[in-house]
Amino acid sequence: MRESRGSLPPAVASREAIRGVSFRPHPSLRPGGSSCPPWLARITSIPSPGRGDRGSSPASRNREPGDWRKQCGTRGRGLREGLGAGVGRLNAALTGAVVYYARDSKKGASGMGKPFEGTRWTKWITGFRLNGIAYGGCIDNKKVFAAVGDGGILLTSSDGTKWATKTLRSSLRVDNLKAAACGGGLFVVVGDNDAIFTYQDGEWRSPYQMTIGSGMTLNASLRGVAYGSVARHHGQEIRFFAAVGAVAAAGDSGVVFTSSDGVTWKVNHPSSSPSLFGIANGKDLFVAVGKNGAIFTSLDMANWTKQTSGTKEDLHGVAYGGNLFVAVGKNGAILISPDGVNWQGGTSKRPKSLHAVTYSEDHSAFVAVGQDGTVLASSDGITWEELYSEAGEMLYGVACGEGRCVAVGDGIILTST
Fold this sequence. Notes:
- By secondary structure, the protein is mostly beta strands.
- It is 6% helix and 47% strand.
- Strands 1, 4, 5, 6, 7, 8, 31 and 32 form an eight-stranded antiparallel sheet that branches. A four-stranded antiparallel sheet has the order 9-10-11-12, with no helix packed on it. Strands 15-16-17-18 form a four-stranded antiparallel sheet, with no helix packed on it.
- It is globular and about 45 Å long.
């Protein structure tokens, strides 16, 4: 599989350069014209080297504001001309063009202990729909962010700014990828149609389609994956990967795939489980969440117990950290639990659907992302503050490591510095 590499952002957008830059709407970037792709129409501001139009190219200076037909003729050349040198060198490694800008965390977005105070968020428009992201030292013994998305796309980066691209495919097709997890020295990616890929011995492998009985495929849509331990047996800790999702042919009933090595997988159907969307591990316990507020827990990966969540909202994601489980979902639903069994509600202050949550060890805080580019943070899971938002954007996954967080979504990557 061919791999292409690109540097995001350009050299002009180093951390030092970003800190001193100011932002203003560029005269050639006023929304208008039906020929501009929707992802480009979302651009609201870009870095500028100074006042006036000194950074613009002659092509952009001679163009009438709002002339999207000429500027959007192609994502590469047309966008380069439209933006000019004011945004530095545009990088075309991920799509025809990548645009970035930076923004500080909103004032007051500090939570308890002020874990994200002063954080700066930098955004790139990628053109990909990215559904999930994970962080860990599971690729060539290097700590990396790994983002996955539709069309089998995989992006990897050691710092959230320089990315390598690859397409993961089985022998038959390319599937939409939904989630990733690192553990036991392995990176595991899951998605539609039983898609499971494992990075092992220097390459990505798709062991096989999950089969049941004699040659029958399950065709499950896998939405979440996690790695962790279960109850000790004879003093020995046992660790598993667990992937959750749903089987359309079975009325979207919930399904769990489990593996101790990332290669050989077993199937489990929790009794009366609806579609499952997310899973996490903590305190030798796996917690899975899903449709209509469903929460299931397991101590041995064979038996699953239904818990009472107290909500009928779909729960899209769950994370563990700081001796606490946090689940997030539709209409701003947030639940917390010290043990995965007893749950209570928190408050997000915004009725926006939340799609994913993770725990940042560096900040000792949970970070949740979702609708309208919402990024929330909390040190206790109860009180949440907004760090970032942008109307019309969608964020589907978030991961943190090495002092920064990276959120991914529909055509965007958002990185904290």
